[in-house]
Specification:
- With about 240 residues, this protein is α+β, with helices and mostly antiparallel strands.
- It has two domains: about 160 residues, CofE-like (60s Ribosomal Protein L30, Chain: A); about 70 residues, Alpha-Beta Complex (CofE-like fold).
- Helices cover about 30% and strands about 25% of the residues.
- The strands form four sheets. It has a four-stranded mixed beta sheet. A three-stranded antiparallel beta sheet has the order 3-4-5. A two-stranded antiparallel ribbon has the order 2-6.
- The chain is globular.
- The two termini are about 35 Å apart.
Length: about 240
């Protein structure tokens, strides 16, 4: 969706997105999903670090030497990590949210010179605020997903992932339903939150020519109070940990 201005700290994202929708001649319908890039959420919430103000610890300096990274970047990653899960060409971290991702989700792309964005502190709350503002404006029942692009341990390439959700159940359990041959499904659980985020990223893009917001219409999901914590794999069941 075009028309989103450069976001700064303190901006009301729901209002900004709503105004952009109207300027574009678009509208929201019941059941639409508005997918919002993590970057603009972090910027609006002040989750940006000026690397010139970061003093790296001894551990950060040592790790930076092994990873060939800026020690200040590594220091930020360590501060945002609850646990270092793996150490390779990147740091694979477990964040306070429970997410397992590269560099604790800290990133310099589209952040401005010498700056680094961090994940929102509570992405579900961020999604909820945007959803409520848009529902008040357009008088429609919708869902909102906060998305980021992550790599996966078992596939090449990054895809969109949901790190926050509101107005939808992030998982869809198909237990008890039947397949084409009448066989009872016992374990199948889909993740519409991630599926919708992945589809939206193809439209949103990652470069400066992309857009940080997409409207997804016709997606299959179940409305609900949700919460992305339901998607996080418990450490004891994480086969790639």
């Amino acid at each position: 969706m075009p028309g989103i201005p450069m976001i700064k700290r303190g901006d009301n994202l729901g209002r900004v997105i709503g105004e952009a929708i109207r300027r574009s001649g678009l509208r929201l319908e019941d059941g639409d999903v508005v997918v919002v890039a993590q970057k603009i959420v972090s910027k609006a919430e002040g989750r940006i670090v000026d690397l010139s103000r970061v003093s790296p610890s001894r551990s950060a300096v040592e790790l930076a030497g092994r990873l060939k990274k800026d020690p200040r970047e590594v220091e930020v990653i360590l501060r945002e990590s609850k646990e270092i899960v793996r150490l390779g060409h990147v740091l694979i971290s477990r964040t306070e949210h429970g997410f397992v991702c590269a560099n604790a989700g800290a990133d310099r792309s589209n952040a401005g010179p010498g700056m680094m964005t961090l994940l929102p502190r509570d992405p579900d709350r961020s999604a909820r605020r945007i959803r409520r503002e848009l529902e008040r404006t357009f008088k429609r029942r919708i869902a909102v997903i906060i998305s980021d692009t992550w790599g996966r341990p078992f596939r090449m390439g990054c895809v969109g992932m949901a790190i926050g959700a509101s107005g939808m159940e992030p998982l869809m359990r198909l237990r008890g339903e039947r397949d084409l041959h009448g066989r009872m499904l016992r374990t199948t659980v889909l993740c519409p939150a991630d599926s919708i985020a992945a589809a939206a990223v193809l439209v949103m893009g990652e470069s400066g020519e992309g857009t940080p917001v997409a409207i997804v219409r016709g997606a299959r999901y179940r409305p609900g109070r949700g919460g992305i914590g339901k998607v996080v794999m418990p450490p004891g069941r994480d086969l790639f940990r």
